[in-house]
Records
---
Amino acid sequence: MGPPLPGANMGFFDWLFGKKKDPYGGSLKKNYADKAYNDQPARYQSPQKPYTQPPQAYGAAPRPAATGERNTGLHFRKGRSTQPLEPVKDQTITSSARRGTANLAHLGGTREAPDPHTDAVKLRSHGLPEIAHLDDLAALTGATRNEIIWLASRPNWQSLSHYSLRQIAKKSGGTRLLMAPMPRLKAVQRALHAKLVSRLPVHEAAHGFRKGRDALSSATAHVGKDVVISVDIEDFFPSFTFRRVSGYLRNMGYGRGVSVALANLMTARLSDGSVKEGNQWKSAHSLRHPDLAKRYHPELPQGAPTSPGMANAIVLRMDKRLHALAQKFGAEYTRYADDLTFSGNEELAKGAGHLLQLIRQIVRTEGLRLNEKKTRIMRKGRQQRVTGVVVNEKTNVSRRDYDTLKAILHNCIKHGPVGQNRENVPDFREHLRGRIAHFMHIGPERGRKLMRMFEQIKW
């Protein structure tokens, strides 16, 4: 006679709906430690070994007193080795109270003890400079080791801030906070951009903040298309936090200490900035700006030389996925900072809804989100604009922008330029000259007309 059926000792409905018997017998007083749990029917069970305590080698040895070593927080290694764990050297960052850089003196290692996790082969494959310790980083940026430590440290209430905050108006209403680095930090960031950030791999679809590319080159790819779809990423730069920047740099081959130092040099909290009122510097909280309560993590500052390049590099995988998606729909794809643009024929117009759904999914899985209020589907019968450039038949400036600037120049000729600077621009003459140069770059014919009017103004 064969083994009993799985439901022989329980009710039919219990067996039918999956309520199984307790494999230990159902007694609450049963000692479960001497019997391994197995919820399979008895006929399919293999012999179980009695439970035994793990060998002592799995446990971490007690921490030696005052040896400068640590062996806690290494539980993830227990499952990979049956040997006792070797104590890890203490890499606690020591202090330099004179510069206010407590616990940062050994960040990234030294020449005598460089970061052991630096992958020189990987760095060379990407064409990036090899930075094995802070002394290498100091030599790369033209600063001293102590200056790098000081600039990478987060300020407290007693120390000076490395950033100044400024509010600028947004087209949609409200204001945006810009963080401008102080001169010494700005010089270090410019050196990092020239020697490191500018060499990071970036997708060909990215046109913003790249040499030889601009808003016009981004718009040119979408000229004369049946439909243009434009979407915008919400909080683009604030989405790249200290963790994302340092994690990206570690993935490129830099060691932990150097990645943390580089990320500290390129990210900052809004609350760490200072506001100048008269001759005094005040805390960022004196602005009472709503973003200060929402954005409390270190992020890529809007105003730092390294922020655009780092953002372009981090979203390389997203650009690859969106480019492949556009090819599936027979469309063109470009990105200018946070503006994503797709264009194509009537087939794309019919599948615009499905395309937007897939774009949302890709952007969301990359840790970003779309600003749904700025999503636009522009068909051929209406004005199609990409990064402020009209692309219906050829690249040109919009009629509204042209008429607005033309009216300002006309009033300057007739009434003088003093009363026309309604936005209180510091150098109104150069401001107008810059706007005209932008118009000439996009639409040369209209730009030349505006330049002739500018030359008639009596300054």
---
Amino acid sequence: MMSHVEAMELALIEAKKSVALGEVPIGAVVLDGAGNVIGMGHNMTESWNDPTSHAEIMAIRDAVRKVGDWRLTGCRLYVTLEPCLMCAGAIQQSRIAHVIYGAPSPKAGALESLLRTYDIPGFNHYPQVTAGIEAGRCAMILADFFRDKRGSHVVRELRRDVRVVEGARLESE
């Protein structure tokens, strides 16, 4: 079975595809219960002019097409940045068992940073969450992208967030 680090490396490769398109570099992969890659995706919001084309959604759509079922029971989703509220909902609705993310998202993170979506009682499915896998590398690809786009102040903010994550105790399988 593929390790968290190996799977996150695949998500980082997907994120690099976004950079080539001028998209925010976020990548995601879905692995089935046996550890096989069944879905891959990267941000396409600008290219497709579609606000729902986040990396997680793209990877889930790819996996659903390959599996032939909207239920991705027993699957794991790896994503380079903590999912937003829309993606957290898609992860939950697709019945993904475990979401593993790299860098936190203080402005939009809906799993732990800004919101704790899966702590809301009453849902019919609660995925397991693991944070901070390759957090430094995941944050750096974003920092580099935004430095080139906007300036160095964004890089300082992302590096501060990564130090917080890297100093935390991380959960592993």
---
Amino acid sequence: MSDFPDPSGDDAALALAGLPPSTATLARIIPDTTARKRPRPGERRVQILQTLASMLEQPGADRITTAALAARLQVSEAALYRHFASKAQMFEGLIEFIESSVFTLVNQITERESAGTVQAQRIVVMLLQFGEKNPGMVRVMVGDALVFEHERLITRMNQFFDRLEGQLRQSLRSAADANGSMTPTVDANALASGLTALMVGRLQRYARSGFKRQPTEHLDALLLRLTA
């Protein structure tokens, strides 16, 4: 794990970035249903997303079909479509979870840290720690799980990283100004682009190594060199 200080300091937020959704947030909002035959309204929807995320965590997993998902849940495919209009909508639910989790923590970092360089470092650390602890989500983030799905899903994940890069540019521009750079915008744009490529590349390697090569490997030393 990273030696950089915890980017949030908030136990609830750390649950999002510190545990897979099957055991953290997605599970936490599903009360115990063992004593009931029917889940409460909304619980089945979350259970579907929880199970989809769990299936995506399997290294080398093939394209997940609604039939396989229904079988894992021990329900009919028709039951899935009572909660989601399409499989694409299920993936959109996972993307919404990723967006909400990550940008909640980004906001905490920028509110608590005044130094732009530190903000950028902690954003990178947080994003890669989130991926490390949520391997199923990584397959969505890098697009591996979306290859045969609707194009709008890949577009949305691209927009996610564009938004992260925009925040990095803002933080690094502030740092460049503070350091008296003659070209703060150029410097910030170049470094933000490189850090975004680093995040995407580390997540891709993690997914394609069967989740064996940790995305936070040697991260502290690398960030110190890149942002010095």
